[in-house]
Structure formats: C-alpha cells, structure tokens
Amino acid sequence: YARPEVGGGVLVGGTEPECDPFQWAEDPDAVDLHVTSDLFNAQVTRAARRFSQVAVPNRPRGIVGVYDVSDDWIPVYDKTDVPGFYVAIGTSGNQFKNAPLVGKFMAAIIEYCELGGDHDAEPVTFTGTYCGHRIDLSAFSRLRRAGGRTTGTVMG
Questions:
Q1: Number of structural domains, the chain?
Q2: Together in a domain, 90 and 134
Q3: In the chain, which residue ranges form alpha helices assigned H by DSSP?
Q4: One digit per residue, pLDDT tens: the chain, 156 residues?
Q5: pTM here?
C-alpha cells in the first residue's frame, strides 16, 4: 500500500506478501525501531516498479513500529481472567474507525459481567442502535477458535 506523506513524500508499506518472511516480535519493547535496508529496498523497489514517477531515495528513511493483531485478524473485545479487567486488543491499529461501536460493545460486556453475568458461558448479544441487527459478541471472544473466514490482513 502507499499514501501521500507530508512534504511531497510517499509512505510505502506492505501487507505481508508471500515473498516476504513474517517478522514476529516476541518482545515488542525490544524491537529495533530503525529502518532496515532489506525491507526498505524491497518495498521501495516494488513501489518504483508500479509507479514510474516514484524516485528511490539514496538512503533508507521511514517509520518503524509494531502493532497488535490476533491470529485471525479479528480483534478481541472481552473480559479477562483477572476480575474487573477488560480488553479491546488485537486490532492491528485499524479499528479506530470502529471506536464508537467498540465502546458500546465493551460497555455492554462490562455491565453484563459486573452485574454477575458470565460472558464465556452466555455471551452478550448487542443490538445495533440504528438497524436493530443483533451481534453475538462471542465472535470477538478471547476463547474463540481462530480460523474463521477472514482475509488474514489489515484489509479486512
């Protein structure tokens, strides 16, 4: 993927193509946040081949970071095994657009559990405000089995 960047630049990234090995971080706090030449060269070369007007910089520049993602790329909105501790995690950084609805999901889960409900045994069902669609929140459970029908990427 690519997008315009401040100052006339282009921010180039990827969505884990089969030709690139996965880079899993066991300890996100220990990740080197410096641009690596190999990944930079691969992504910039791909962009330059697709867009002839893209100039290839003579030195690696860019942004490096980590983000959380679940095994199946579906976020986890759930309680934890620690009483009173709830999570909205594994969003791969793209769920900000869903934040208002996620807040309502989390409020429903928290209220239900804090009033004595067992979200694991009898999951919360949320009813959409505008369309009335019922959403089974066990789809976002930390206990769900991975392997559902997803693209396996941030693209959804």
A1: 2
A2: yes
A3: 37-50, 99-114
A4: 788 888 888 888 877 788 887 778 889 899 988 888 888 888 888 988 988 887 788 888 888 888 778 878 889 999 999 999 999 998 877 777 889 999 999 999 999 999 999 999 999 999 999 999 999 999 999 999 876 676 666 665
A5: 0.72
